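Why does residue order matter? Because the sequence determines the fold. Keep that principle in mind as you read this record.
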Amino acid sequence: GGGVVEGGSRATNRPLMVMYTSELVVRRRDGTDGSWTMNDYLDGHLEMVHVQRGAGANDVGMVAWLMELKTVEYPNGRQVVLIANDITHKAGSFGTREDVVFKMASEFARSKRIPRLYVAANSGARIGLAEGVKKAYRVAFKDKSKPENGFEYLYVTEEDYERFQEKHELDAEKVELDGKTVYKLTDVIGSEPDLGVENLKGSGLIAGETSSAYNDIFTLTVVLGRTVGIGAYLVRLGQRTIQKTTASPIILTGYQALNKLMGCDVYTTNDQLGGPGIMYSNGVSHISSPDHLGAVASAVDWLSYVPSKRGGLLPITDITGIDEVERPITFAPSPGLPYDPRHLLEGCEDTESGEWRSGFFDRGSFTEALAGWAKTVVVGRARLGGIPMGVVATENRTAEAIKPADPADVGASESVVQQAGCVWFPNSAYKTAQAINDFRTEDLPLIVFANWRGFSGGQRDMFDEVLKYGSLIVDAFVAYEQPVFVFIPPYAEIRGGAWVVLDASINAAVMEMYAASGTARGGVLEANGAASVKYRTKDLIKTMHRLDETLKSLDAKLASGEEADAIKKEISEREKSLLPVYEQISVQFCELHDTPGRMKATGVIERQVDWPHARNFFFWRLRRKLAEFDLRRKMVEAGDVGRGVKTLTSLEATALMKMWFVETPGMTSEMWDDDRAMLEWMGRHNQMLEEKVINLTRECVVQEVYQVMTAGGNTAVIGTSGIVEGISRACEKMTAEERDNFKRTLKDALNM
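Structure:
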């Protein structure tokens, strides 16, 4: 009934306030007011507090907020930490106080395991001069009357030296000049804070923090103004980046400074060095946006795929009225015809009838990332039945890689390289590995639509380190913790080196391989190549003589000793005329070794999946895997009680879970592979499973204590006294009732 406005029923439930913020401010732990420094942070004297205050009340060029956002996925609110440069304060430069605010806000986000967003608009590390010394120093010229001839050194008078020594603003050597004692400057230290190299130490502090944060929580940078030096490195260390297309370059050095270095005006804008034309095209920026609002909207959209806390439950969206879970996929590739792989993922309109041909994921849920870089691979995030997933798909059409000409190199010209589809090049292999790492730290399950003939092994690509980037894909899979499905779609293939970096045995605890029934292919070489190596002309001729009736009768005639020369000539001509068709036969025979049927028979894939029903199959498989992984994690953690007992591996936990499943009345080992039956079992026996996990923990504690007390020698003596001491300390903390119960349990267990 009500609420038939945009967003359907959701519009009726919209909260009045969708965002609550409190500013995160650094202050001294003892509550005293006044300025603090980096040394206070290093000594542990600072804390971060929540404050409600107006805009512009900050005295540091870095501001941070804790935000609660009420989103469609989290109508009750989700927390994020937002850190931003204040470009109105000393041009947004990074001094040591700015670094402390950044570091503490980022540590706060990590402690709560919530996303950390950074809005970049800055001028890099702060540069300053000792103004007091600048006003007082003098110059010892070689010839006072001709200063243009140069100078010997800088100095201060004895009187100034005494004054500067009070705060140790400089170091100097005592020298004689024109009969007077003066002090020749050796080091200018200054009394003002943040003049130079100390800012770089602070930059190192926040660079290390951002690298740790990328591994621990969701990090995202929104570049809304120039970001320089350490600012550019923070962008890359946080990995995920949204860049505004205008006036927001990501640079190491401003163009004016570079021009000065080279002695002529080579560059005219900072955008030539780090605008989206460079940074979106080389994969530093994942998404580009024309304005502030678009950039912020992209950031909120990105958050919609990510759990509210690292390691939390995935944000599942209600897709009622948008799409259906159990529907067939109506878009299908045609054999031999290149197509846009995005249609496989998100569907498309039929060019002739205008009808919608649905794809694998929920309609309208696919968001591409890194689209400007390495276009032979497509990566992004999408939803399957409302469950967010990362996706990697192969581009099967030829793409162009453009390298701009550097204005600083007179002989340079723009180079355009054609890159074939279905092949991994150095840049697309790197993009694949980068995307997998990003999905891992977003806790997303992953599906790879694999259609690779291999890696590009030509001289240029071997020189451009294709082997390095290809092996990064394996590293990324090995570190993955959520379910991974590698699926060979219809009329697609995986060959040689490409299979090696995608095989499920890389990380058997999380990876599974599937192939589209009938038309998918996989093997060391393509059928043509295999035939040319393993089915040579002599083998073809043998096959002809085995199968061709004409050749059989000619062989018989030859054997009976009739006109040998004429028959040999006839045989030779017959062989020549049959060769083309038998070459095709040999290719077909080789191709039959690469079918999904053989893949299943040899155990390299889990099963064949019918493409029209792949959405339905993978939806239930994913739900089952997420539930299984959740229980498995609890089982593995159950054993993590001490140092002596070996904890379960993921695969051992799965095997134990299967044993519990099969032991349940009415369940068989065949039913273990039925995703719906498994999910139903987990739902029905939730209480029993929780008890089993508790028993697992208890058994591990028992083993730990038993091993310590029976170890023999000194270990047993120390261990036993440690256990007794631990029990006595615990008893002190108990209430009288708890203590009595514990004593009774202990007496019963020991038969005292």
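Confidence is low (pLDDT under 50) at residues 1-11.
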